[in-house]
Every structure is written in structure tokens, then in C-alpha cells.
């Protein structure tokens, strides 16, 4: 019997999106050296998302390095559902991000790199606004960190209950 020698495309763990490719130069004694810098966001549409940046002499090398860096910085989101549980404001350097929950069927109302991050994270209904910088890298990182800072409502209730109990214990000890 013959062996199956056809190549099967491997299933990728993450979906990759290139957000930005820049040509950067370094001045050396003989002139300028050109390289490429790529900003990549990866996600699995199920709550895992990451970003990476890579530099290389050619575009494909820069993208490969960026994907490798992104896989090392994957963030697991700690909430379920098609939207975020509560509004979030987050600041990273000069980028200010505002994310608000939206009702079912609204879709993603956000622009630029924020939209890509939210899509790859698997969030379907959310309203987002970039208030500070328009830098794609800063907005990407700020969005991922904002999503990572969200905890589920059950965890939030437990934290709240713990803080409510502490003052009562302190008052009881003083009596």
C-alpha cells in the first residue's frame, strides 16, 4: 500500500494579524542600514491574546520574530461571555483606553488597533475609545493590559466581601 506523502497544513494555535510594518534605519559609518519592524497581535478567539514586535532585514523575518515574541506574551482573559462585565479605563504611557460593555448584538465599536485586539480576544459586543495617544503600539499594549485587568464579577464580589468583613473584625477586637 502507498504511503500518503501529501503535506497537510498544520492547524495554527493562534490567528495572527499584522498591525504595522515600519521601515527603520540605523546610521553607521558607511551610511544608513535599513531594517523592518513589525507589530503583530495574536489571539485564539477564546480569551487568549498577545502582542509582539520584531525587527529584521526583511519583512517576513520581522513578522516571524514578532509572532514568536507575541506567543511569549499571551494573556488569558478571566471573564466569560460576549462582552466585558463592567467599564474599564486604563492608561499605558500616553495611551488612554476606555472600554464599555455593550448589549448583545451591538458588535465591536472601536477603531484602529483596539478593534483588532478585541476581535482576536473573542469579545463580540463592546464599545471602545482611544483617548490619548494614537500610537498603535501603545494602544495595543494598553488594550491588552486593560482586558487583563478585568476580573469576573464573582471574583469581584469575593474581594468586596473580604474587604467588608475586615473592618467588622477590627471593631470587634477593639471592644
Automatic annotation (TrEMBL):
Entry-linked PROSITE patterns: RIBOSOMAL_S5, S5_DSRBD
Which GO molecular function annotation, any one, does this entry have? Answer: structural constituent of ribosome
Domain S5 DRBM, by residue range, is 14-77
- Which PANTHER family does the UniProt entry name for this protein? MITOCHONDRIAL RIBOSOMAL PROTEIN S5
Naming one, the record's GO cellular component terms include: small ribosomal subunit
Q: Which domain of life is it from?
A: Bacteria
Q: Which SUPFAM superfamilies match?
A: dsRNA-binding domain-like, Ribosomal protein S5 domain 2-like
The processes (GO biological process) annotated in the record are:
ribosome biogenesis; translation
Q: What is this protein called?
A: Small ribosomal subunit protein uS5
Query: What is any Pfam family matched here?
Result: Ribosomal_S5_C
The family note in this entry says:
Belongs to the universal ribosomal protein uS5 family.
